[in-house]
Amino acid sequence: MVEIINGIQQIGIGVLDTKKVFNWYRRHLGFDILLFKDEAVASLMTKYTNGKKERRDAYLSLNMVGGGGLEIWQFKDRVPCGPKEPIELGDLGIFAMKIRCSNLIKSHDYLQKMELANLTPITTSNKCNNYYYFEDPFGNNVQMVEDSYRFCKNTSNNGGVMGAVIGVSDMQTSMNFYSKFLGYSIVLYDQVEALKSTSKLASIDATYRKVILGQERLTKGGFADLLGPNQLELIQVLDRTPVKIYKNRLWGDLGYIHLCFDIQGMASLREKAKQINHPFTVDSSNSFDMGDAAGHFSYVEDPDGTLIELVETHKVPILKSLGLFLNLKKRNPNKTLPKWLVKSLSFHRVRQDI
Length: 354
Prior knowledge:
The chain is mostly beta strands.
């Protein structure tokens, strides 16, 4: 079967307290669908956890306006480490997640009243989507991007994850990887920009090449309509040597640990990864079980070692109390799920702090 990249399923965030992070994003940014929570041993990730099978707690939360979710991930037997030095724009790895927002002014005013760290002014442009940045209470950079796509009508000004800002060392090499492997072949923006040290995004003067890539989705299936259109923003700093955001740290330590894509055709992607010299580094081979959800997952590294997760979903809980689960293995992977069926994930809405 030819592979299908349905979109960004979720972004992984290493945290100190899963409940605290979930509650904050539920209250303030509408990630109130708790699709699953699961405590288990990450036995297949030892390549990235110093050879030790680490026990972890994971929540997957969604925003039904549309977009990818948050996989909120916490070590259970060790205290996660933060970066030794502040992360600079252009450092190698995931600098920020991109969240779609239909009304930047309202959302900016709301966050400004919360006195969040490093809230930037809104940047307007006739060459790319308007946007602004802020730092969440847990030290993670977030970019709010003006975007009108909506899967469900909702009172929230924003939807889910529509991309990531990724630091790269060689722009052309990274563009080739994301284009050939994941289909991000549409160049939406390509400019050299300068930031002063007075900016809330940088502590030193620097220039950057910024490229925003769109996804060419010739075929889509499964949850593609919920995930919506998305983009990747690649940043190459031109006048300093970037460092790896996860240098001397583990997958699961504090920050953005991976970017996950919802896919069909894992076997085909496995072969493609070999052909472009980025073979799978982790492969569940058959089917993983995360409590209420199940599927097949694999990892590849981009040219700078940033972790890309691929998930072929097999089972999703609809109403666990009644034993209702959606079995995706029996469905045509080339067709999107009916909207009413995807909307049934709203049964997992959490209306108060947990």
